[in-house]
Design a protein that fits this description.
With about 220 residues, the protein is mainly β. It contains 3 helices and 8 strands. About 10% of the residues have low confidence. The chain binds a DNA duplex (12 and 12 nucleotides) through strand 3, strand 4 and helix 3.
Length: about 220
DNA sequence: AGCGGGATTAGC
DNA sequence: CTAATCCCGCTT
């Protein structure tokens, strides 16, 4: 969007103050950057995201209203919502739309660009690769050590959509094509439920084995 | 207080 | 297929 075309220029708050689906798609190809003092910057190119669309979205943490856990989703766009799942994994979201509208984009996978020593091909693995935990909850991603930057945005025809992962409990919302990923990337998560259902996806031939990714993430 | 489950991952 | 592992939300 803006005139800022420097790959490492931070995405401004206005970027996140837009419809969540738009933000989720537009984040693909952007860089997630962690630049801390006394440490080489960690940079990943976002290749997989999911949109969560407020209290009516039964797959969203906001589906049952505001709680202490999901409160950041109700706050200012451009901030982090970091939560803990399954007793061992952290997941990073970026809050979107106006304060009071509990929408967010889950960052699910990134390709290594610099400073990463572990794969980031999954939401838990992304946080692990960047060393992110609950301390980053509510962090402002438009300034500070953790940010998203202009990066190298991808063309819309390189983006595929499928149902979101791990939300089978969400009724009809489980089928919505709200997971987006870069078609050509090797670093997309290897989710068990990655069976493509999005309209943009070309279904593999019957019987063809597919476990989410074809080759190993570099 | 206690209980059930989860926007996941790795290993058998 | 399943264990790991714990915070949170909801129920007693």
């Amino acid at each position: 969007m803006s005139a800022a075309s420097e790959p490492l220029a931070p995405l401004p708050r206005a970027f996140f103050l837009r419809p969540t689906i738009e933000v989720a798609q537009d984040l693909l190809g952007r860089y997630l950057v962690l630049a801390r003092k006394d440490e080489a910057p960690r940079i990943g190119r976002l290749v997989e995201t999911e949109a969560y669309l407020g209290e009516t979205d039964l797959a969203s943490h906001a589906a049952r209203g505001k709680t202490r856990r999901n409160a950041p989703m109700y706050e200012e766009p451009g901030h982090a919502y970091v939560y803990f799942v399954y007793g061992m994994h952290w997941c990073l979201n970026i809050v979107t739309e106006e304060a009071g509208t509990p929408c967010a984009v889950l960052l699910r996978a990134a390709e290594p660009v610099a400073g990463l020593t572990q794969a980031a091909d999954g939401p838990g693995k992304l946080c692990r690769a960047f060393g992110l935990d609950g301390e980053w909850n509510r962090a402002d991603l438009t300034s500070g050590e953790l940010r998203t930057t202009y990066g190298a945005p991808v063309a819309p025809d390189e983006v595929l959509a499928t149902a979101r992962v791990g939300v089978a409990y969400a009724g009809s919302w489980a089928q919505e094509p709200l997971r987006f990923f870069v078609a050509s990337s090797n670093c997309v998560s290897r989710s068990r439920t990655a069976s493509p259902s999005g309209t943009l996806w070309e279904r593999p031939a019957a019987g063809a084995k597919r476990r989410g990714r074809v080759r190993a993430c570099p």
